[in-house]
Write a structure and sequence with these properties.
It is a single chain. By secondary structure, this protein is mostly helical. The protein contains 10 helices and no strands. It has one domain: Hypothetical protein af1432, CATH 1.10.3210. The termini are far apart.
Length: 201
């Protein structure tokens, strides 16, 4: 690989990481969420035996999956009490907002799909489109598991991060319902190897 190509790839990564920091800066309770989702997504892709190119795409998709939160008011994102129905509906609009921001990136269309579908469920009961497993690309299903794991193991405005055994149980409970079984089992393997519980905020 020539130096110019290496420099362009490095710039791409740095710009995406900067965007991820911008997204996370809106939520004072989950600093680093996007970067952790990116790291976990890459770990899962590697453990699933995917080629390096797909591991890199999973990382980038993880970085930008929540970019739509740029369009959500800080007061809603950082609210410490239960959201009203209107606020909850507003929060649930962030996948569509993210998709609209990223949809014109033709060189990596997966970015927009990761933003739009990371809250879809394996059984089709997620949002915003109710997509089923067959309709969701593998990399999106990977980001979904990584995002859910980090959501449980990060501090939130309304709670501290959960104990490792609680997060593990929730991943296991979601197999075939919220999560792709193969990806969820890979996540369980990663959790079981993390004996010091270092994979949390």
């Amino acid at each position: 690989m020539e130096n110019n190509e290496i420099n362009i790839r490095q710039l791409t990564t740095e710009v995406m990481e900067a965007l991820a920091h911008t997204i996370d800066a809106k939520d004072k309770y989950t600093n680093g969420h996007s970067e952790r989702v990116a790291i976990y997504s890459r770990m899962l892709a590697k453990r699933l035996g995917l080629p390096e190119e797909d591991q890199e795409k999973a990382y980038y998709m993880g970085l930008l999956h929540d970019i739509g939160k740029i369009g959500i008011p800080n007061a809603v994102i950082n609210k410490t009490t239960k959201l009203t129905d209107e606020e909850f509906e507003l929060m649930q609009s962030h996948p569509i907002l993210g998709y609209n921001i990223l949809k014109d990136i033709k060189s990596m269309p997966e970015l927009a799909l990761g933003a739009r579908w990371h809250h879809e469920y394996y059984n089709g009961k997620g949002y915003p489109d109710g997509k089923t497993a067959e309709e969701l690309p593998l990399l999106v299903r990977i980001v979904s598991v990584a995002d859910s794991y980090d959501a449980m193991t990060s501090n939130r405005s309304y709670r501290q991060y959960l104990p490792q055994e609680t997060a593990r149980a929730e991943i296991e409970k979601g197999i075939g319902i919220q999560f792709d079984p193969d990806i969820a089992r890979c996540m369980l393997e990663i959790i079981d190897l993390d004996t010091e519980y270092s994979l949390h905020e």
